[in-house]
């Protein structure tokens, strides 16, 4: 029996880990253990996803909570090291690009535990983003690098990573989407809305500065004159929003709501006229679903969502948002990137089995 330990911590990790856990569960030669770092801890940022995605409850919760990058990363490392020294897993799997991912990778490599990175190779080439640093470090340390798209393979090879560690497997987030899309249902109160624009914004570059956030809100209010706007607000954004000097209350067609679970949020994406976002995963989900995505960033680590998918970057010029929404044309061609087929996790499990058991 080999032991595989998964480390998750923040909202976008959960929908990536769920299909990989299930795919490995097919084999009876593996014992699996889930560790939650506690980076995200609100019910709507964490617990609800365990229920909806049918993820087992974590055997260990490190309860690290919020803090500066250094504090959060260091606390995860200190607490995870203790768990790993007791469990002594044969493989640790980490997901995506959050602080929990890099913290776990550093611990594993220092105590020589083999490490697999799911969603390896993505690069924005923008080191001002904490996620880019997390991706670069994690990929240097990982023994198995599972990429969602072939640009990832190229980036890794350009950074000197040996080809025999790189596996192009496809997109595990899309595995979850394909599995659960028929259960996705938008909140009842929005069921009558037509042609609405769904918004999610939480990147430090957009929301930490109050002037930026005020400009975002006034441009979204402008959009709401022609299209309803639905904006589930991330806790990070909420903190700054509370200090904004713009009156965004009591505006018809402008709905600021709490974060939603996976199924309700997916329901809202499926039926939206377009999504305005700075998230990584949502660029992928809209591409698969054929929904126009307007990304409020200067770059993306997911270029395939532009070259193949429905994504476009508008930079941080917030005044472009209303104009871009107005210029949207009806959906035409709708292509899906290679291996975004619902089977990425099965490929990962097969590769792990072949390497760990043979
Ligand atoms: C993290 C990830 C980001 C990901 C995002 C998804 C890093 C560096 N960033 O950003 O890549 O897109 O998660 O949500 O790992 N907070 C709460 N409750 C929670 C979690 C956070 O109130 O459950 C608040 C806290 O005030 C905290 C702030 O949100 O300080 C930011 O949380 P943090 O985990 O540091 O980063 P995110 O912005 O969520």
Order of strands, widest sheet: 3-2-1-4-5-6-7
Question: Can you give the mean pLDDT?
Answer: 97
Using only CA atoms, what is the Rg? Answer: 20 Å
Q: Give the termini distance in whole angstroms.
A: 13 Å
Order of helices and strands: EHEHEHEHEHEHEHEHHEHEHEHEHEHH
- Which class of secondary structure composition applies to the elements? alpha/beta
The low-confidence runs, each spanning 5 or more residues with pLDDT under 50, are none
Strand tally = 13
Main sheet?
7 strands, parallel
The level of helicity is: 40-55%
Compute the number of helices.
15
Shape summary = globular
List the bound ligands: uridine-diphosphate-N-acetylglucosamine
- Strand share of the residues? 15-25%
What is shown here, in short?
Helices cover 42% and strands 15% of the residues. It has 358 residues and is an alpha/beta fold. Strands 3-2-1-4-5-6-7 form a seven-stranded parallel sheet, sandwiched between helices. Strands 10-9-8-11-12-13 form a six-stranded parallel sheet, sandwiched between helices.
């Amino acid at each position: 029996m080999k032991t595989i330990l998964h480390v998750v911590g923040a909202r976008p990790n959960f929908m990536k880990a769920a299909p990989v856990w299930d795919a490995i569960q097919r084999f009876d030669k593996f014992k699996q253990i889930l560790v939650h770092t506690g980076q995200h801890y609100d019910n709507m940022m964490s617990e609800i996803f365990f229920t909806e995605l049918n993820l087992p409850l974590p055997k260990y919760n490190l309860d690290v909570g919020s803090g500066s990058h250094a504090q959060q990363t260091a606390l995860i490392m200190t607490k995870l090291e203790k768990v790993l020294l007791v469990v002594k897993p044969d493989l640790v799997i980490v997901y995506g690009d959050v602080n929990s991912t890099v913290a776990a990778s550093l611990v594993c490599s220092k105590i020589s535990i083999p490490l697999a990175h799911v969603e390896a190779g993505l690069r924005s080439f923008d080191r001002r983003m904490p996620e880019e640093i997390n991706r670069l470090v994690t990929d240097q340390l990982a023994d198995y690098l599972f990429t969602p798209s072939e640009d990832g393979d190229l980036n890794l090879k350009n950074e000197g990573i040996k080809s025999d560690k790189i596996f192009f497997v496809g997109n595990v987030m899309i595995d979850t989407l394909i599995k659960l899309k028929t259960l996705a249902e938008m909140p009842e109160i929005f069921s009558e809305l037509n042609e609405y624009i769904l918004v999610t914004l939480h990147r430090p570059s957009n929301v930490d500065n109050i002037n930026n956030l005020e400009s975002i809100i006034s441009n979204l209010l402008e959009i709401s004159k022609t299209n309803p706007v639905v904006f589930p607000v991330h806790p990070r954004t909420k903190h700054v929003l509370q200090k904004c000097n713009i009156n965004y209350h009591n505006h018809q067609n402008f709905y600021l709501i709490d974060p939603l679970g996976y199924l309700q949020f997916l329901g809202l994406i499926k039926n939206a006229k377009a999504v305005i976002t700075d998230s990584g995963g949502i660029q992928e989900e809209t591409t698969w679903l054929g929904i126009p995505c307007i990304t409020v960033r200067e770059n993306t680590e997911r270029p395939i969502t532009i070259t193949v998918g429905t994504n476009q970057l508008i930079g941080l010029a917030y005044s472009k948002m209303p104009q871009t929404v107005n210029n949207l044309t009806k959906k035409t061609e709708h292509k899906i990137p290679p291996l975004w087929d619902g089977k990425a996790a099965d490929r990962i499990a097969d590769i792990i089995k072949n390497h760990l058991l043979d």
